[in-house]
């Protein structure tokens, strides 16, 4: 029997195709072996870092609460208290954010119960503890308001008293924060004034005072806005009937609180971005 060996032998095109296929398989195996798919991303490194920071912010109950507060007061500012869709959104968001405040009274009372050490003198120690108690009362009676909104508590007179006690406690706690921050800043400045000019101790004290002022100025501003907001929600004096002004104060205080709670941008990422720009 005659057998045509050329028919059974692979042609040049087939051999070339086999070589290309083997090379592709080797490249894919090398890519997967080195974790190529794990390094593939739709976002750049800086965008991925920002997304991680947002996730860290949203992982906190306080972060979700203050983000909802920003939406709540933005709707109040835009609607100016007039009925409509914005006011409905404001009401629903106000009810929704109450859940993130569960067990807040216990969290506020922890410094008092544990008796954490305090660096300043006795008067400021008492102010700090009074602030903790007032904020615990604020959150505690705010839970009664939430229970009323959920249909658990139905006494209208008790609800009105709970609202007043809650807002007055919030106002008092915010004022205590203002006094405490001013005392800490004053203490840092007094330490600088008691040292000789040109000395190393004075230079270190100045650096500490500058850092203290930088860290406390935001909390001081935020506490001031919160105390004004509490007066606005109680419709005291100039705030009576001015929902847009109250919404503006709430929006500013909530946005500032979100900024304070947001995780800091990693220094390594900042250095990488500056190097790329240069």
Layout of strands and helices, then pairs:
Blueprint: H1 5-8, H2 12-33, H3 36-39, H4 45-58, H5 61-79, H6 85-96, H7 104-114, H8 122-149, H9 156-193, H10 200-233, H11 243-261, H12 267-277
Oligomer: single chain
Number of helices: 12
Question: Overall mean pLDDT score?
Answer: 82
Largest sheet: none
Class inferred from helices and paired strands: mainly alpha
Taking the alpha carbons of the first and last residues, their distance comes to: 78 Å
The poorly predicted ranges are: 1-6
Order of helices and strands: HHHHHHHHHHHH
Number of strands: 0
Approximate helicity band: over 70%
Rg over CA atoms, rounded to whole Å, is: 31 Å
Strand content: under 5%
Which geometry do the CA atoms define?
globular
């Amino acid at each position: 029997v005659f057998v045509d060996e050329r028919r059974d032998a692979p042609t040049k095109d087939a051999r070339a195709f086999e070589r290309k296929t083997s090379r592709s398989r080797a490249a894919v195996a090398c890519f997967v072996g080195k974790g190529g798919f794990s390094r593939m991303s739709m976002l750049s490194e800086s965008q991925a870092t920002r997304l991680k920071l947002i996730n860290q912010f949203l992982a906190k109950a306080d972060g979700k609460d203050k983000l909802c507060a920003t939406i709540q007061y933005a709707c109040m500012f835009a609607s100016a208290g007039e009925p409509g869709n914005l006011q409905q959104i404001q009401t629903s968001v106000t009810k929704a954010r109450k859940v993130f405040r569960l067990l807040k009274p216990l969290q506020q009372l922890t410094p008092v119960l544990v008796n954490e050490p305090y660096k300043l003198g006795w008067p400021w120690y008492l102010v700090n503890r009074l602030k903790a108690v007032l904020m615990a009362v604020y959150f505690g009676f705010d839970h009664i308001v939430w229970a009323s909104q959920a249909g658990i508590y139905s006494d209208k007179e008790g609800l009105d008293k709970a609202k007043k006690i809650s807002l007055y406690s919030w106002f008092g706690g915010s004022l205590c924060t203002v006094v405490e921050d001013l005392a800490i800043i004053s203490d840092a400045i007094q330490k600088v004034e008691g040292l000789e000019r040109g000395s190393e101790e004075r230079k270190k004290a100045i650096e500490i005072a500058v850092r203290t002022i930088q860290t406390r100025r935001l909390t001081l501003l935020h506490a001031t806005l919160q105390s004004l907001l509490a007066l606005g929600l109680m419709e005291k004096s100039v705030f009576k009937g001015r929902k847009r002004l109250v919404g503006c104060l709430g929006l500013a205080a909530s946005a500032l609180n979100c900024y304070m709670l947001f995780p800091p941008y990693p220094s390594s990422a900042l250095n990488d971005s500056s190097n790329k720009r240069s």
